[in-house]
# Entry
Amino acid sequence: MPETDLMPEPSLTVPEALTGSGKPLSVTRLRKTYSGVTAVDEVSMEIAAGEFVTFLGSSGSGKTTTLMMIAGFCEPDSGSVVVGGRDVTRLAPQKRGLGFVFQQYLLFPHMTVWENVAFPLQLRGVPKAELRRRVGETLEMAGLSSMTRRRPRELSGGQQQRVALCRALVYRPPVILMDEPLGALDKKLRDQLQTEIKRIQQELGLTVIYVTHDQEEALVLSDRIAVMRDGRIDQFDTPQELFERPRTPFVADFLGAANFLPGHVEEQTAEHTLVRLDSGGLLTARPQAAQDGTRVRAAVQPGRLALCPPGDGFCTGTVETVTYVGTLVRATVRPVGGAHSELVRLELPAGRAPALGERVGLSAEPGNVSVFPDAENGG
# Structure
């Protein structure tokens, strides 16, 4: 029978040397420029043992350059990288002992699965008995024990990626670095391998630093996410905090494509902030330090909006588009009244879809609304 990309989960015998092998990693004020252009600008972070951290950002945000400086493939202009209390900033990549998984699997085409995974141990002169034990345990852990004699061309993309992961794990590195390892795979397989990578990371207590531009992938995998922009970290936090309590408009927009509703602060208390929207409605948000009358933008994610009767909520408008996306419906509403006429986007369960042209009200819980100064209008 042909093997599937994801085989049934094997009974896992965790190699004792791998358990809890993650060591804290510290990055301090890393900086890198190319021809006068700053690629990474004073990036600092502390990563705990066993933590899964993702660098998330669009192209040119500095995420891959930061990862390459940690790996040793790129030398920083300034700053330091410390792994387990050892400064490795100026060490060559092979002397740092870190595991690395690329988007391109870089498997040796003339070697079998077993030989590819064993190769790092052979380079390190590991005795044959220990080598056989480690390779066998690592392949079993990833569900590849039945494929040891195959060569890369005989494997699917998902199987090749798991071989690449095993090769990075087999010599017990303190930290695994992954540079968009699932970027070349289709969505179904990518989702499957996300689950597999997270399972292995949690069961072995691995410290992982992962690079992606995919927001959903970052939210699914990560304990914490560093959202990067223009070589800096905009916010370094848990997925829930980033999504529910973004500290900057960029983070609110990048993770979830928030609606930004312009208005001014009408009332400020210890419990809430009342924003009078340009469309005329009154929106209650969580507390924000801002004086009455200050121009602001209230941010709320499409999935945090709810329909209500016209005249209720913070906005009444007309449904302009309705798009079915599996179990979700994405709709847009054009507010009526006031000068503000930008469409408001919302996501609803498929069974609660409004009709095109329907007049509806929109509401949001105060805890789901963030308020940011409107810099464009003197806020």
Notes: The CA atoms of residues 17 and 324 lie 49 Å apart. DSSP finds eight helices and 20 strands in the chain. Confidence is low (pLDDT under 50) at residues 1-22.
